[in-house]
Amino acid sequence: MKLRLYDWCKSSHFFRHAKVEFAYGKFNLDLVDFVQHEMFLHGCYEPATLALFETLVRPGDRIVDVGANVGQYAIAAARLSGSGGRVVAVEPNPQIGSRLIDNVRMNNLEDRIAIVTSPMSDCAAMLAFGLPGPWALGTTRLKRPGETGGFVVLASTIADLITQLNLDRIDVLKIDVEGHDMKVIDGALTHSSVRPKHIVFEYLHESFDYGIEAHNIPGHFSKHGGIPVGPHSGARRR
């Protein structure tokens, strides 16, 4: 039934867009995109990861969401951290970034969510991205050899972000960037004296080459004073 509804939405122009309200706010969704379609059907995307995220964010926290998509985690973070919190939402894909901006505006959270369009990495460099199809906007990734189209943008690091936005700390760093997660983490841990208290990131070794095997991840964080925790492929600092 879900697949039939999804296929119907993909072929329909009249019912493609929807404005809905969930626990943390209002969203303008494109139902052709898989992530947004899942939000429409279930009220959220990745419920287990969102539940973990909710346990980490406290009032007054500073949260950085790398790979913010349409703003599910950023808007949740703004609600959970309250008026004293600060949220940075990083989304370089212009196709989905415009919808992120709309959703932040629709929830009147412009004063608490700063939107950054530069991708994060382990150093400042020009990165070339492929543009995904409209059914998978959240899968923006580095361009593969021989791939045409896409866009090129100057990447920054979490360390630079901290300096430019005058963040005194990062309480929660959430990352979901299609295999580039460890590069973002290295940019946060190697080049900055401000270490995230909590890191939630994606590790799908069957889909991406992270440059590190799963069994080596605990040691990678330990050398920076981190303590890996599970089962959500995350890491936490004390």
Beta-strand segment tally: 12
Q: Percentage of helical residues?
A: 25-40%
Strand order of the largest sheet: 5-4-3-9-10-12-11
- Number of separate helices: 8
Strand content: 15-25%
Derived from helix and strand composition plus strand pairing, the structural class reads alpha/beta
Structural domain count:
1
Summarize the biggest pleated sheet.
7 strands, mixed
State the CATH class.
Alpha Beta
Order of helices and strands: HEEHHEHEHEEEEHEHEHEE
Task: Provide a descriptive summary of the structure in words.
The protein has helices at 2-11, 34-42, 47-56, 72-81, 94-106, 158-164, 181-189, 217-222; strands at residues 17-22, 25-30, 62-66, 86-90, 113-116, 125-130, 141-142, 151-155, 172-175, 198-201, 226-229, 234-237. By secondary structure, the chain is α/β, with parallel strands linked by helices. Strands 5-4-3-9-10-12-11 form a 7-stranded mixed β-sheet, sandwiched between helices. A 3-stranded antiparallel β-sheet has the order 7-6-8, with no helix packed on it. It has a two-stranded antiparallel ribbon with strand order 1-2. Helix 7 links the parallel strand 9 (172-175) and strand 10 (198-201). The termini are far apart.
